[in-house]
Specification:
- This protein is mainly α.
- It starts with 7 loop residues before the first strand and ends with a helix.
- Helix 4 packs across helix 5.
- It folds into two domains: 42 residues, no CATH class; 171 residues, Rhomboid-like fold (Up-down Bundle), CATH 1.20.1540.
Length: 250
């Protein structure tokens, strides 16, 4: 195997040191060689031999205490968030074929607790559904990039279904349908870390005002949409904040 070329050569015309990989002197224009020397595929820039082609980049090993699926990757597509948004969209479309009373919490459950699981994925009001889906898309993506897909699914289900269950248990005549609790839960889980940074005197690199505005819109949604339960929204936000505190401790 031929030795690697020198890093610099001296131009015979002007005496300047130039790179050995150029064909003409950049100072006087003198022709140094016909073509630049070829780089051997087994050489590294620091002179060590590869011996084989470079392996593809890999994620680092899990740190102590980390759980597979709970580590974020900003470069990864948020598949969990996309799946949740698509499920909510399909649920909204499906209500054109059957009654919302078949999946919503309308009055006492009477043992039909499965409605707690179905209600977050359906909405009878288009604008209410769009507001929830946009919020889930934004903050679900941010949370998934930070903590991974499993966290997004767990927070969505805990806040969404937990909020619906709270409405069924606490409201005298419960009426709950839609993902306002789940959306507020994702906002709460995401917002805890920048809020803690602000309390420590650090300046967060995120927009908390925008998050507060979207949370306020969802909290006030029951004033114009009867199926949006205020209890479900408040309980979902509380569950999300608790989840955010647990994630911050990690």
């Amino acid at each position: 195997m031929p030795p690697p070329p020198d890093l610099f050569v001296v131009c015979k015309s002007c005496g300047s040191e130039v790179s050995s990989y150029v064909t003409e002197c950049p100072y006087c224009g003198t022709r140094l060689r016909k073509r630049a020397p070829k780089l051997d595929s087994t050489e590294l820039t620091d002179g060590r031999v590869r011996g084989r082609t470079a392996s593809p980049p890999r994620l680092s090993k899990l740190k102590p205490g980390e759980i597979p699926g709970l580590r974020g990757d900003p470069s990864r597509r948020p598949y969990a968030t996309i799946t949740l948004v698509v499920a909510c969209a399909l649920g909204t479309i499906a209500l054109a074929a059957f009654s919302a009373a078949e999946v919503a919490v309308v009055g006492p459950l009477d043992g039909e607790w499965w409605r707690v699981a179905t209600a977050p994925f359906f909405a009878d009001n288009l604008w209410y559904s769009v507001a929830c889906m946009v919020t889930v898309a934004i903050f679900g993506t941010l949370l998934e990039q930070r903590h991974g897909p499993l966290v997004v699914v767990l927070v969505f289900c805990a806040a969404g279904m937990g909020g619906i269950a709270a409405a069924a248990a606490l409201e005298t005549v419960p009426l709950a349908l839609g993902a306002n609790g789940a959306a507020l839960g994702l906002i709460g889980a995401w917002a805890v870390r920048p809020v803690l940074q602000t309390r420590r005197g650090e300046e967060p690199d995120v927009d908390l005002i925008g998050a507060a505005v979207m949370a306020a819109v969802l909290l006030l949604m029951p004033l114009v949409v009867s199926e949006a339960s205020p209890t479900a929204g408040a309980a979902g936000l509380l569950i999300g904040l608790l989840a955010g505190l647990l994630l911050a401790r990690r």
